[in-house]
Write a structure and sequence with these properties.
Elements (H helix, E strand, L loop, with lengths): L3 H14 L7 E5 L13 E6 L7 H10 L5 E5 L8 H11 L4 E5 L6 H10 L2 E4 L10 H6 L4 E4 L13 H9 L7 E6 L8 H9 L3 E6 L7 H13 L5 E3 L5 H10 L2 E4 L10 H7 L5 E4 L5 E3 L4 E4 L4 H11 L10 H18 L3
Parallel strand pairs: 1-2, 3-4, 4-5, 5-6, 7-8, 7-10, 8-9, 10-11, 11-13
Antiparallel strand pairs: 12-13
């Protein structure tokens, strides 16, 4: 499913299923593709038509039929479209089944956060400071609950290409002497793509958007108009969402992966981590800007700082860092989750 939390769930489920003492089932929406679970020990039940209120008790019965020792919910995701997603944890916990929740971001409303807090036996966060971003009333409700910080790792496979392979992929997109810039992920105002398009207009570069620009989305269409106004129609390719392997290969061949967040990147970001894993130079933003992190081969410019981004590209575009395979990292993440689960189970 087109969702960073969906990709996270897939990685976590596969890593958990490697352990001999874990049997992993994923109960999710009907439109989820379970084919990639065929090579793992994960049992995918893609059978939820929607998450509206009428599904609450049928889903509760279905959860109990599966007889889990622990039920683990992920929040928030693109796929949840109704109240059942927020109510089900509480009903699961009241039925006697331990309920773990992972909050990737603060819940969308204070009311939903309160309901979720009631339903959590334990809470996992992927951002260490998430608690400080919650309303005071929600923090109070969570005061006696165990909160565990488990950071994530790259959602993409790590691709190691030879110079010849990298050159061949790059040559399929750009002419010699042109930077290949890549952006991927959901397109929304907070992503700051206006700054990136301005950078493209002022540099010898070609931008590949591994993302959707939808005809019925007003913001997406405003970006298309900006591309026309800047006269860079022939230097922006909109590929749409790409399969993981193809996307990782594209990133591994690029001169830079650029994520110009309008308010700065969060401390942990799925898109940035996926690019860092490929060894490509990553250009993103943070408040204040002006910082290069050699461990992640990432430059942090000031949001909206097109001139600073161009300077960073002139210095680092095309350079590479060692790749960072994520398999072992996800095994460690799964181990941390198993420790949480064990605390909730009878000895």
């Amino acid at each position: 499913m087109k969702c960073g939390v969906g990709a996270y769930t897939q990685k976590l489920a596969n890593a958990l299923a490697e352990a001999p003492d874990c049997e992993v089932m994923v109960l999710t929406g009907c439109d989820a593709d379970g084919s990639e679970a065929s090579d793992s020990n994960v049992e995918v039940h893609a059978e939820v038509p929607d998450w509206r209120s009428r599904r609450l008790f049928p889903l509760l019965r279905r959860v109990r039929e599966l007889s889990p020792d622990v039920v683990h919910f992920q929040f928030p995701t693109q796929g949840y479209n109704g109240r059942t997603a927020f109510l089900l944890p509480l009903f699961v916990r009241c039925s006697g089944i331990p309920c773990v929740q992972t909050w990737h971001e603060p819940p969308t409303t204070v009311q939903s956060a309160r309901v979720l807090a009631l339903g959590a036996s334990q809470l996992i966060v992927v951002k260490e400071d998430l608690r400080s971003h919650l309303a005071q009333s929600v923090q109070w409700m969570l005061r006696r609950k165990r909160l565990t910080w488990i950071p994530a790792a790259s959602m993409l496979p790590t691709v190691n290409l030879s110079e010849a392979e990298r050159g061949a992929v790059k040559a399929s997109h750009v002419q010699p002497g042109t930077w290949l810039l890549v952006f991927y992920g959901f397109v929304a105002p907070l992503k700051g793509l206006e700054t990136l398009l301005d950078v493209v207009a002022r540099t010898p570069s070609r931008l590949v958007l591994a993302a959707d620009l939808l005809p019925d989305n007003a913001y997406h269409q405003s970006l298309r108009r900006l591309i026309d106004d800047l006269g860079i129609q022939d230097r922006v390719d909109v590929l749409g969402f790409q399969p993981d392997q193809a996307l990782a290969t594209l990133l591994a061949s690029a001169d830079a992966a650029v994520f110009p967040f309008a308010e700065g990147a969060a401390a942990w970001n799925t898109s940035i981590d996926g690019a860092v894993a490929q060894g490509v130079f990553v250009l993103t933003t943070e408040q204040g800007g002006g910082r290069y992190d050699p461990k992640r081969h990432t430059y942090y410019a000031k949001p909206g700082g097109g001139d600073e981004m161009i300077q960073a590209l002139q210095e680092y575009a095309g350079s590479r860092a060692p790749t960072k395979p994520s398999t072992e990292a996800w095994r460690e993440i799964a181990g941390a989750h198993r420790a949480v689960y064990r605390e909730l189970l009878p000895s």
